[in-house]
Amino acid sequence: MLLYIPSSDPVTVTTSKAKVEVNENTNAVLSCEFKTEKETNPCVEWKKRGKDVSYVYFYGDFTGSFKGSASINGATMTLRGVTQKDSGVYHCEVTARHDKIKLGEVTVTLNVLVAPHAPSCEVPETVMRGFSAELRCKDKLSIPTATYSWYKDNKPLHTSNLPEINYTLDPKTGTLKFKVVSKSDEGQYRCEASNGVGAPKSCAGRHMKITECKLIVIAIEVGAFLFLLLCCVAICLCCRRGCCCCCRSEYHFTQTNTI
């Protein structure tokens, strides 16, 4: 005697988009679709996994900061006005108590993109001619990581290493390095951050002044002083020995008056 057992499909949970990328302050739709064997009123839960597991939607209600900023349709969840802290891995779990296999789940990863912020810029106020200089630029908030451009007097600086330029510019780190500065490098510098999300942002322009080397100036001043001092000593010696014309005339005049 053969025993016939009818086939049945267990609860299945799927998503139409496993990776979701949205800009900051927009809405994110996390898709979750399910099919059950017998259960007509399954239990839907959403969890967010990080260092710890936290409930987002539990027993028909949103929890914590998601209250009032999220909605659900079936098992698909919409988060409104997302920020960077909402990025992470979300799990949709569907429990069908009357099904043979009672639990199904699917994972959705949310990545919130952040437009560039005004970067912090480090530009030295003064640099001595003939010395090296380094200008720095950083935007720590943009996602994905920003790339950087530098401008001098509102004109873009080259990123390629051309033989006629005396600097190197790294668009990934935002560092602008001068090997040896000259007077022509003096001007107003600003940095621009961009990452393809929103408009690029710049820091306020800052002026870099090129000055003469103080050591050279001091050396010239000391040299001039020593030269004048040597001249005075030489004149005094000449006068004592009677080598100088003015000193001989004065000496002769004195001797005549004495006689």
From TrEMBL:
SUPFAM superfamilies: Immunoglobulin (SSF48726). InterPro entries: Ig-like_dom, Ig-like_dom_sf, Ig-like_fold, Ig_I-set, Ig_sub, Ig_sub2, Ig_V-set, JAM2. Gene3D superfamilies: Immunoglobulins. Residues 10-109, 116-211 form the Ig-like domain. SMART domains: IG, IGc2, IGv. Pfam families: I-set, Ig_3. Keywords: Membrane, Transmembrane, Transmembrane helix. One of its GO terms (biological process) is leukocyte cell-cell adhesion. The chain crosses the membrane at residues 215-237. GO terms for cellular component: cell surface; plasma membrane; protein complex involved in cell adhesion; tight junction. This is Junctional adhesion molecule B-like. The gene is LOC107595821.
